[in-house]
Amino acid sequence: MTFLFVLGGLIALVAGGDLLVRGAVNLARSLAVPPLVIGLTLVGFGTSAPELVTSLQAALSGSPGLAVGNVVGSNIGNVLLILGIAALIAPIAVDTRALWRDGAVLAGATALGLWAMSQGTIGRATGAVFVAALLAYVGTTLLLERRRASDTGALYTAEADLLPKHPTRLGRDALLTLAGLALTVLGARFLVQGAVGIAASMGISETIIGLTIVAIGTSMPELVTSVMAVRRGEGAVALGNVIGSNVFNLLGILGITALVVPIDVPAQILSVDIWVMAAATLALLVFATTGARVSRREAGALLASYAAYMGWLLMTA
What we know:
Shape: globular
CATH class: Mainly Alpha
Mean pLDDT: 83
CATH architecture: Up-down Bundle
């Protein structure tokens, strides 16, 4: 039953997240919201809705290992697994000017996350700082783009354009959005319940489950978006999707979750996994800036690193 809960929860999360993003984007289009805003907020952050709801559910259920492991594991998986798969399909050309701003924000968010988690507990005050930093990032980006369009803004617009356009109907789109939200919440509840059951029945920590099954499952929307982007020749969108998702995971998901309930960070994550996350982030920035592309060889290195990391987790479990 626990495996069925996990499988059903993951399916509901992915389906719910997709409905939520599509419904919200159609609503925004019907209200004449600019594509830049749609790409930066609804698409960029909407794909992280499964991680947010799952971490909230886990923290409220008294499973901090799942909550923090989901965020750290998702950020590791986004870089090593998802970007690796995307660049293996087609090398990703990088506009270094477009990368400069968001790459710097990702580096800053990662450093802030490392500092907060190294304290052992992420309290409400820290959560408020994280959420304020995220809102400042979004607000500053929108303000700068209104004054002067940039290549970075073009990436967010392209993210919005990835979603198919349908005739907008307010009633239908509102129902899709609500149905997606409900399905995401239900899926998160099943996933957390099943993950806790698996950890108990197999005698392994909830943190390991959060770093592996939960993190990979909740990152499926990012995988779909990135693969879709590279297949359409929009490799820069795939890179931007990974960077934006990782920023939101750290500032938004950890911040909002800590605002609701302070989170104790497991010792295992403090000793190993946050440093793997930092190394993966550094690799992303180095690969993206050297040669202005992420090549297939670099993609292979990312995937091999992820396989080694998963192998180490399973061996130590």
